[in-house]
Amino acid sequence: MKLVKAEIIAIGDELLYGQIVDTNSHWISQELDLIGVKVVRKTTIGDNRTDILAAFAEAEKRADVILITGGLGPTQDDLTKPLMAEYFGCGIIEFPRAVEAVTAFFKQRGREITPLNILQGHLPSCCTYVPNEVGTAPGMWFEKNNRYWMSMPGVPHEMKKLMKDFVLPKLPTVFSLPVIYHKVIKTVGIGESWLADLIRDWENALPEHIRLAYLPSLGQVKLRLTAFGTVRKKLEQEVAAQIALVLPQITSYVYGYDEETLESAIGKLLKNSGKTLALAESCTGGYISHLVTSIPGSSAYFNGSVVPYHNQFKENLVGVKSETLSAQGAVSEETVLEMAQGVKKLFGADFGLSSSGIAGPDGGTEEKPVGTVWIACAGEGFVEAKKLQLSQDRLLNIQITGVAVLNLLRICLIQNNK
Amino acid sequence: MKLVKAEIIAIGDELLYGQIVDTNSHWISQELDLIGVKVVRKTTIGDNRTDILAAFAEAEKRADVILITGGLGPTQDDLTKPLMAEYFGCGIIEFPRAVEAVTAFFKQRGREITPLNILQGHLPSCCTYVPNEVGTAPGMWFEKNNRYWMSMPGVPHEMKKLMKDFVLPKLPTVFSLPVIYHKVIKTVGIGESWLADLIRDWENALPEHIRLAYLPSLGQVKLRLTAFGTVRKKLEQEVAAQIALVLPQITSYVYGYDEETLESAIGKLLKNSGKTLALAESCTGGYISHLVTSIPGSSAYFNGSVVPYHNQFKENLVGVKSETLSAQGAVSEETVLEMAQGVKKLFGADFGLSSSGIAGPDGGTEEKPVGTVWIACAGEGFVEAKKLQLSQDRLLNIQITGVAVLNLLRICLIQNNK
C-alpha cells in the first residue's frame, strides 16, 4: 500500500508576523494522522502572489493531498482564490448554488448582502464547490495529475466543519488508506510521569503494532492507543484487550474514552442518577458553569449558579456566616464548605460545588500566596473540601481549578452511587 | 534599504503528526517582526534526511536569515547537526568549550554525564559555537554566501534564551534593518465586508508603504496597519494620521487598539467611571462572567452574577415576574429586561446585563428557533434590549452572545458617560 502524503499550506501575513497563532495546521495534522495520511510538510506563507504560486508548485511535487487554509475573505488582500484559478489555468465564474448559499447565509441573519459578498459565490471554473454552512467563503476542491487540493477559510470553526463534512470522508474514497484504529483513554487527577510509572510494565509489553502516546493537557492526561493493521475489527478487539489489562491499575483516574470530556462525563453521571447540581464560584468567576452548560441538554441536571465576587454576596446570597468570613477569610476551607452547602440549598440541588481562591496576579499574602485555592463539594449528608496550590498565572489557575472542581464532583458522584 | 527576509524551519516528526504544538515559530515571528526582519515563510518538516536537506536548499534561495529549531537532542532520530555539517561541507569535531559546558551542566545538577551527552559538545567545524546556558544542546551559527543560519534546540525556553542572548542582538550588526511599525484597530459589532465597504475609499488612498489587513474573529474584526520605513517616530505619526482620517467613519465600532480585548476595554470604562456590573446569564451559562473575571483586577467593578437556568430561579432569585414568564416565555424581550433590572438590584450594581436564548441544538420551536437570543442592559434610568438570530451551534451561539452582550454594555457605558 502506497503511503499517502499531505502538505498543509497556511496563507496569511498575520501568521508570518506572529499576530495570530496558526492552530489550524496542528488540528489538521492530528485529523490526518487518525486516518493514516502522513503529513510531510507544513508551510506558512504571506499574502503574496509569488510566494503562494511557488508554494503550490513545490507542494505538488511532494504531496498527494494539499490542504490550504486562509486568504479567502471578501477583501482585496485575500489572494487564494484568484491564484488557484491562475495555477490551475481556469477562469473565475459564477457558481449559482454558491451565490445562493452566501445570499441565504446573510438573509438568515437578517442582514443585507453586499456586492463583495456576492463575489464569494464566484469560483474557479475547474473546482468542485464545497458548501460552507457556517461562513461565507466556500470550500474549493481540485483534482489534477493525481493530486487532490482543498482550499478552506482560515477561520478555525469553518475550516473544521469543511474538514469533517467533506475532506476527511472524501480522502478514503480517493486513496487506499491503511487501517489505523485509535482509542483514547481519558484520565484526570494524575500527572503524566506518575501515570507513566504506574503503567510502565504494561506499556513495555505492548505488541509492536500498538503504539501508546501520552497527551497531557491542563490537569488531564489522555492515553492514546494506535493500532496498525488491515482488519479494523481485529484491531478493535486487540486494543480492547489491552485496555482491559491496564484498567485495574488506573481505574480511579479514568473518566471516559475518545470524545468524552470531563463535563460530558459528569453530565452523564448526573443524568443517570437523576441528580441535580448548583455552583457557587468565586475565583473561577463563572468558568465552571460555562463548562457544565456547554454540554447540550445540561438543563436536565444543572439548576444554576452564583458568582458572589465580594464577601457581602457570599454572605447574603449563599449564606456563608459573617463570623466565618471574618475569622477564616474568603479563601478558606470553612468558607468553601459553607458556600457549597449554601448554594445547594439556594437552588434546591442534590450537589453544591464551590471555589474560592487568589487567582492573581495580585491579592496574594505571605500566608495565602497567589495560586492558593479552596474547592468543595456538598451532597446529601456529606461535604468535602480540598486545597490547591497553583501558579502565578490567572487564567491557568481558573482553568486548573475548573478541572479540579469537576473531578471532585466526579469522585463524590461515584462514591454516592456505590 | 534591502528587505531582510527570514525563514523559520521547525524540525520534528511530533510537529507533523500533531502531537505537540509548535509555539516556537510563532514566538520567533513576533520577535523578528519587532526588529524589522520579514519572515517570508515558515516550514515544518519531519526527522527525515531528504526533507531536511531539501528544506535547507530551498530556504537558502528565499531568505537571508534561516532559523532552525529542533532535531538537536542526543538520540539517533535527531538529524539537524550531522545534516548541517553535510550541507555546509565540513566535518564534526570536538569543541572543547562546548564539551566543558555540557559537562558542567550535568555536574551542576548532580548527575553523571553520559557518552551520548558528551557528543553534544562535538559540532560542525564550520559553525560558530553559541553556548546554551539552560540546556545541553548548543546553538550553532553559520555564515555562508551572505546567508546567516542559526540552529537551536526545540525546547521553547532554550530557544528563547538563545534568540534573546545571541540572534536578536546579532542580526542588526550583520544587516541594515528597516523599521516596521504595526498598529491594530479593534472593532466589534460590524462584519468584515460592511467594514470594508465603509472604509474602501480610505483604504484605496493609503500610501504605498502602509498596508491594511482585515483579521476577523467571532463578532469582531481587527484592522492591522503595517508601515514600512526608516524612522519609527515618523511611521508612528503617519499611521496615527491615517487612523485619525478613518476613525470618524468607524468610531462607534472601535473599542481599542493592539493588545486590548473587549473585556479589558470594558473593564477600563467601568473602572474610569467608578461603575459596577452584575450579570444574569441564562443561555450563556456563566461564559460572560468568565470573560469579565479573566481580567486582573476585575473585582474592582464586577459585583457578581447569577445563572438562573430554570424559570423558578429567574423568578425567585432575579425577580422576573411570574406573569412575564408565563405570557412571554423565558426567551423574550420582557424577560431579559426584567432580568437585567433584577440582577442590577440584587448585586447593588450600576449596570445589569442579561441573556436568555435557545443555544441549541435542541429546544427550538417554530416561533423561536435554535439560535434565538435576547440580551439586555439596564443602567440608571434606562434599559435596552436586543434580539440576536444566531446559528445551530451551541458553543458558537454562547460565544457570539457573549461578544454581543459586552458590546451592548460598551455602548451603554459610552452613552452614559456623555
UniProtKB/TrEMBL annotation, chains A, B:
MoaB/Mog domain location: 7-173
Pfam families named among the record's database cross-references: CinA (PF02464), CinA_KH (PF18146), MoCF_biosynth (PF00994)
InterPro entries: CinA (IPR050101), CinA-like_C (IPR036653), CinA_C (IPR008136), CinA_KH (IPR041424), Competence-induced_CinA (IPR008135), MoaB/Mog-like_dom_sf (IPR036425), MoaB/Mog_dom (IPR001453)
Superkingdom: Bacteria
Family matches, as Gene3D superfamilies: 3.30.70.2860, CinA-like, MoaB/Mog-like domain
Family: Belongs to the CinA family.
Matches recorded under HAMAP family: CinA_B (MF_00226_B)
Protein name as it appears in the record: CinA-like protein
Organism the protein comes from: Algoriphagus jejuensis
